């Protein structure tokens, strides 16, 4: 079998994620994943190295999300320095009259939120539609997602305000979740992450509350790095031993260190952290050999003296 030399450093890829890439069968997705590994997960650096357009990058990232290989794309901030136009009531009224897609969108969003939108809310919805340029089908998925997340945090029947929907819409636009395939891939990745969270939270001593947003970011990062549940629990236990209480930043530093070493399973972590043991059959040092020879010579000399004095080696006369 031919061998492959790895120039420079070595990029670590777990067998599980390799299987996912193979099953994905997506060339751009595989190239992007390798670029992300090479550049420490920095999406901007990976894109620069690949020389891709934003559209090609978004499509490849969405494919990786659908396979559960990456989490949400980091916020790029391309809209943060811009201010949306101040839409007037007549702008919204004209859009409802002339744009059947926007009119249908309004009905669907009101159905999802369970309420009629106020004039201010209508302007907010039109900002998402016109300024951010999200397609109606993406906005519909966005509204449903916001309702589900709000109920998850605050209980069944609770509905988000349009200001919260707008905030999430900006996040989606910044992440490139601006097409139906990208939105479906994003929601699939979020669903997978939520299922993983439900398994992880009890292992971290969280049983009677929902995780905070910052805690969810940590969990998403650790899942994205490829850690098994027991490895995350081990990091939690070591955090408690060191800090006497839970410290998310400290626990993250432990996992970040293991990730840098390519250790994502408990058996690999324990093997990687163990100090190298001295082989049992290791040859004794020269000094030890001299001391053993000297002890043997002294014992032989004592036996000879006893024999000369009429004693046998056992000490009897």
Q: Nutshell version of this structure?
A:
By secondary structure, this protein is mostly helical.
Features of this protein?
about 325 residues; mainly alpha; 3 domains; disordered N terminus
Describe the structure.
The longest helix has 24 residues, at 180-203. The protein is 66% helix and 0% strand. The protein folds into 3 domains: 15-66; 89-174, no CATH class; 185-270. The chain has 15 helices and no strands. By secondary structure, the chain is an all-alpha fold.
Poorly predicted ranges: 1-8, 75-81, 277-283
Q: Tell me the major beta sheet.
A: none
DSSP summary, beta strand count: 0
Overall helicity: 55-70%
* Through-space gap between termini: 74 Å
Encode the helix/strand succession as letters. HHHHHHHHHHHHHHH
**Which class do the helix and strand fractions yield?**
mainly alpha
**Mean of residue pLDDT values:** 82
Query: Radius of gyration in whole Å, from Cα?
Result: 32 Å
Which range does the strand content fall in?
A: under 5%
> What is the total number of structural domains?
3
Quaternary state of the chains: single chain
Shape: elongated
| Number of contiguous helices | 15
